Amino acid sequence: MKKKYYITTPIYYPSAKPHMGHAYSSISADFIARYKRLEGYDVKFVTGTDEHGQKIQKSADKRKLSPNVFCNEISKVFLDLTKTLNLSNTDFIRTTEDRHHKTVQKLWKILEEKKFIYLSKYSGWYSVSDEAFYTESEIIEKDNIKLSVASGSAVEWVEEESYFFKLSQFQNLLIKHYEDNPEFIQPSSRRNEVMSFVKGGLNDLSISRNSFKWGISVPNSKDHIIYVWLDALTNYLTATNYFDENSSWPADVHIIGKDILRFHAVYWPAFLLAAEIPLPKTIFGHGWILSGDEKMSKSKGNILDPIEVVNEFGLDEIRYYLMKEVMYGLDGNINIDNLKNCINSDLANNIGNLSQRIFVLINKYFSCKVPDPKPLLKDDQKFMDCPVEGLRKSMDSFEIHNYIREVISYSSKINKFVNDEEPWTKAKNSDPRVGTILYIALNALKNIFILLHPVMPSKSEYYLSCLNVDTKNISLELINKNLPINVELKMPGLMFKKYI
Ligand code: MSP
Q: How many separate domains does the chain show?
């Protein structure tokens, strides 16, 4: 039986169409999911939409649609995006689904039975845009408008009867969990952030609203709906049928953006501890895609539409650019000039050029078949060795950008080897060494395209099929298996376009 791995993306608010920031979260999770499959795991990969709450209700009202009809329309756009981005998700969850309602109400009942819920009154600040409660010290005033310091979004004063979760009781347990499990919150800078927030003390958390209706009802209450974050976080359990059958919970990693760290690293583990449900192993908070110096977001009007960019430059190219250029865990600026440079230098000039040169020679001098390497020279071995162990290490600490950089530097090394050996000259002189050089380069190309599968799934599969590799069973194990001698190859078309 294969080992299991469960990874999630945040579930997206279908309050507006997706932008590059959303695409980034999903592509990075897809990268990890696909990499884990290369390592031999049976991967469950869940994404979806977060459809309740005041934010969605307001967006639907603006369009004069019922929230239901509105969500059906925009959730579909997110679903379609999973196809456009070639995500390998195994589920797409909508919080309006029946399976989810049941799980959320069940979790509520457990928390209630265990006496972690009580009825009182909330009076304080609320941001509809963040769906978050803020204390006085988390608010600033700018031009007579009260804003959240953290997100910059407007807050309003709310006073209403509300159920509360006894979050304050979990301060010490959470700190202990962070201390005992350093891998729980990653990268470590985020862990420090969360740790100091929790050390500052926790207030009980309002977990129901009663001034609007768009949400999951509190069991046995006519007036209250469940706070949208308690509802949304529970999707991770719903997708595993947690309360019904042999569930694949706990998650190995929740991939999220750093803006929603508090919900995932404080509230979520506290709910789970209270309900005596195992905690996820890791919460990874990635940085933001910036446009200029600002977070790319719809409210700032500085968004890049992922569909437009994909149509212009190609999906695998965009995936590659985002994963390589933005250090995973940190913020990163993206722009079109940079994207073109990246495609030209890494893809067209490095990998594309290497493969083109090798295939032209294989075609011309070896009838498009894998040549016999003849005896390898002592020095040749270092070009046959692929740096898999280093790559595994990078991925164990979620350093996607380093993983890609290492693959590219391996490709540069092979390019240099080919340049130095000049197989085109040797071929003209009928030097038998040509077969050895091309054999080494072909196997390196096979390795490069296996390793790039998580980031460029379709180009990788296309190329591996030209190399006669079974694309249904791509795995890291194939790295050490050389292509069989004499096997027939297929001349690939032009791989990467160059931009000016
Ligand atoms: N619905 C909540 C998540 C609930 S998860 C139980 C939510 N949705 S969101 O649509 O606003 O954001 C989803 C994800 O997109 C978040 O992880 C957020 O960080 C990410 N991004 C939104 N804009 C972003 C950038 N500009 N850059 C990178 N990621 C950003 O929050």
A: 2
